[in-house]
Structure formats: structure tokens, C-alpha cells
Specification:
The protein is an alpha+beta fold and 451 residues long. The strands form 2 sheets. The chain has an 8-stranded antiparallel beta sheet with strand order 3-2-1-12-11-10-9-8. The longest helix has 50 residues. It is globular and about 95 Å long.
Length: 451
């Protein structure tokens, strides 16, 4: 039987027609009503059963964007609210990989930043954020077990260091040295008993030799009791949410996990048994890298002649003296730069980056003209404030090259200005003395004539 749906056919008649065509028999109105109720209930259940763990993650990211986890008490409050939000999604997210990855991430963060799962007595009961009331079942034993499982937690000294690589590229070593490097091709950032990280950089400018990271490989070497060895690989336009074998986690209590924070733009690798956090972002066409790792593990198992940029910095012949370009006077139409210094400084000030990150931003814009590098500098500074154990205090003591240049320009111009000023002052003094002397002589002469 052929069914034709006209404009005047109402919804019930249409459904009845479909059923008649399908079953070949007439269907009673009661059955049609029952079918409509079933379809509606299935739709509502589907809508309510959607996993909202990514919503929890985005709310947590927004609430902690300006917080320093090492000094701001509100960070622990936000982290507890994050845990509550994720717990509320347990029923609807039970089969979701992002949920399970996030569930193991939270206790790791709490341990790293000394946050108690139980709020202090004087803490407000208002949550920073929470999931929709539809997703509010009691915590599941699976989620609680992540907090209780301490077998593969890190029990060493909790003194951490941070390394970051971003932009054209700019390097902050574990020992807070700032460098801008060429390093075209493949270079190791870290290579110790626990981790190996390598980047591949492509050339951006033949004039300055600047490059940017187009590929990044992380090898977590594993632990016999806690996690298998896993390899993570990202490159331009491909920032996976899993290791290369397709898994997102490994080991007891998911002690090694990849968490997708912002799809295609921001992932994190958390290695619980060595208390290490790795942040990888794609901004524009290029990748950025940041890591927080215990100080006592950084040198374990390294060979004496190993080249690790995060540990030893770039070789001297691979370093770029970016101050040379930043002090170069530019104007519109200048063929040596992609953007004038003044325009680059204006755009970088809009992102509120400071010191080395401001200088790096200006350098990148003058080199490439790609405004995505302003975002790269901003996120790199955000990673420092989040991952560096003393990041905020260190940044307050840093200055931009432009502050130094301003001081240098004043000093360099000062001697000649002061020389001219001193000469003029001396001349004025001499003229004053002469005028005074002439006045005295004139007065004496007038007196003698009077007598």
C-alpha cells in the first residue's frame, strides 16, 4: 500500500498510515497513541541520557582560568565542584571514555595540588558549577574507587619543575632559562627513565631561521605494576584524544590517561605514578607543549651526552638573538618583516601577555604576521601560572626586552644629552658671572663719577 502525506493530514493520521503501510493492517487509535507515547519517552530518555562530562570540564576550565592552583584557595573549591559535577554524570556516562579518563584525572589533580576531597568547614556550600539536575544520581562505587586507589600514586618528594615550548619556537627550560631557537627538524625535549618527548619543527622564516612545531611525540615508558608503555603522537590538524593504539588509558586505576579538554585543540596526558602532567595544544597550524614533572625524576636514566632541550636548552648555534629583530626600526612596506613592530606590539598587548611572552609574541608577529601566535603566547603563559610551582611570583620579577630597551635608550642617549645640557649650563653660569661682573663694574664706575 502506498502512503501519500498531504499538508492536511495530521500527525496521528500520518503515523497510522505509516504503520498501515508497514503492517498491512489498520491500527486502532489506542495503539497509535501508545506508539506516540513510546516514541516521545524514548526521545526524552535519549536527551536526558546524553553524557555531559565535557560540559563539566569546560565549566571547570572557565572557573579556573585566572587561578593559580599553587596559591589560590578557590582552585581547590573549583576542583571539588568539578569532582561533584563528574560524579553526577556517572549514570549517563558509564560507557563514555571521556568520563572514565576525567574520573581518574581529578584525584590526580587533587593530590598534585594538595586539595582535600572534603571541603573545609568554613567553605561556602555554593558550588562553582554543577551538572544539570537531571544527572544527579548518587556517586557510583566505580568513581569512588578512583579516589581510594593509591597503589600507583607517586610517593616521592613533591617538588616540581616546568618546561614549555611554543611559537617560533620559544623555550622555557626546567631551570627557567628563556631561549628562542631555530631547531629545524626533529629534536628531543625530554629523555629519561620515564618519558621521552620529541618535536619536529618546520621553517617559517629564512631571514631569522625561526621554525614552529608541526609534530610532537610522547612516549610514556610505563611501569611494570601500573601502566603499559604508551605512545602519543600529534601533528598539524590531528590532535588525537587517544594513544596511537586507540586506547585512552592504561594500568591500575587508570594511572596513565589522555584527557581531551577541547576537541582538536587541547589534550592533556596525566601520568599518575610519576605525578606528571603534559599539555599539548594546537593553535592555528602549530603545536605547543608544556609539562610539569617532579624535579627528582628529570635526570633519572639520562645519558651524559643526551641532548634534551628542556634540560640543557638549545645548542648555542641554534639560538636566535631575537632582541636584534625587536630593536630593528620598521615601517609599513618593510620587506624584512611580516608586520611592523608597532602593530605587533599593539596586537600582543591585547592578549595581556607580559615579559618574555610579550617579547615572543612580538617576535612571532614580526616574523610571520600570523595572529594565532598571540594566542600561543597567552596559553603558554597560562600554562606557566598553572603548572609552575612558583610561576606567578617568577613572572612578577620578569621584564620585557622593551622595558630594558627603554632603559638602555635613555642611558645611551643620556651621556650626550647630559653633555650638551652640562655645556649649556656651564655657558649660562659663565654668562651669569660675566653679566654680574659687568654690572658691578658699571656700578663702581657710576659711583666714581658721582664722587
Amino acid at each position: 500500500m502506498k502512503v501519500v502525506r498531504s499538508e492536511c493530514v495530521n500527525k496521528s493520521a500520518f503515523i497510522e498510515g505509516l504503520l498501515t503501510a508497514w503492517m498491512g493492517t489498520r491500527v486502532s487509535s489506542a495503539k497509535i497513541l501508545l506508539l506516540q507515547i513510546i516514541i516521545l519517552s524514548l526521545f526524552i530518555r535519549s536527551a536526558r541520557s546524553e553524557c555531559k562530562v565535557l560540559k563539566c570540564t569546560s565549566q571547570y576550565a572557565r572557573s579556573t582560568d585566572q587561578l593559580n592552583p599553587n596559591t589560590d584557595r578557590q582552585y581547590c573549591t573549583a576542583l571539588r565542584a568539578y569532582a561533584d559535577c563528574v560524579r553526577r554524570t556517572a549514570r549517563t556516562c558509564r560507557g563514555d571514555l571521556n568520563y572514565h579518563s576525567t574520573a581518574i584525572l581529578i584525584p590526580d589533580l587533587m593530590e598534585n595540588y594538595n586539595c582535600s576531597p572534603v571541603p573545609p568547614a568554613d567553605e561556602t556550600n555554593k558550588p562553582v558549577h554543577q551538572a544539570d539536575s537531571a544527572d544527579t544520581p548518587a556517586p557510583t562505587t566505580a568513581f569512588i574507587s578512583y579516589f581510594d586507589d593509591q597503589m600507583c600514586s607517586y610517593h616521592g618528594r613533591r617538588a616540581f619543575r616546568h618546561c614549555g615550548l611554543f611559537g617560533d619556537p620559544h623555550l622555557r627550560t626546567f631551570y627557567d632559562e628563556y631561549q628562542t631557537c631555530k631547531v629545524a627538524g626533529a629534536w628531543p625535549l625530554i629523555d629519561n627513565s620515564y618519558l621521552a618527548v620529541q618535536v619536529s619543527n618546520v621553517k617559517l622564516s629564512l631571514t631569522t631561521g625561526a621554525t614552529a612545531t608541526s609534530k610532537l611525540t610522547v612516549i610514556v615508558k610505563g611501569h611494570p605494576d601500573c601502566a603499559d608503555q604508551k605512545v602519543y603522537e600529534a601533528h598539524t590538524n590531528n590532535l588525537p584524544s587517544a594513544f596511537i593504539d586507540g586506547t585512552q588509558s592504561s594500568g591500575r586505576g587508570r594511572s596513565l590517561v589522555v584527557v581531551e579538554v577541547v576537541p582538536d585543540h587541547h589534550i592533556e596526558i596525566h601520568v599518575k605514578f610519576i605525578a606528571t602532567t603534559i599539555v599539548v595544544r594546537q593553535i592555528g597550524l602549530y603545536l605547543t607543549f608544556a609539562i610539569r614533572m617532579p624535579d627528582e625524576l628529570i635526570h633519572m636514566g639520562e645519558s651524559p651526552d643526551s641532548l634534551q632541550l628542556c634540560v640543557k636548552g638549545c645548542p648555542r648555534n641554534e639560538r636566535i638573538d631575537y632582541t636584534q629583530l625587536l630593536t630593528y626600526p620598521t615601517r609599513d612596506g618593510d620587506q624584512d618583516v611580516a608586520m611592523t613592530r608597532e602593530d605587533a606590539m599593539l596586537k600582543c598587548r591585547e592578549t595581556n601577555v607580559t615579559d618574555f611572552y610579550f617579547d615572543s609574541c612580538v617576535f612571532d608577529l614580526m616574523t610571520t604576521g600570523d595572529v594565532n601566535f598571540t594566542v600561543a603566547a597567552k596559553e603558554a603563559l597560562h600554562d606557566v601560572l598553572r603548572l609552575h610551582p612558583n610561576g606567578r611570583a617568577l613572572q612578577q620579577n620578569q621584564t620585557s626586552i622593551f622595558d630594558t630597551l627603554s632603559s638602555v635608550n635613555t642611558d645611551s642617549a643620556g651621556p650626550s644629552c647630559r653633555t650638551r645640557s652640562n655645556s649649556i649650563t656651564l655657558i649660562l653660569i659663565v654668562l651669569g658671572v660675566l653679566v654680574s661682573s659687568l654690572s658691578s663694574l658699571s656700578s663702581s664706575s657710576s659711583s666714581s663719577h658721582t664722587l
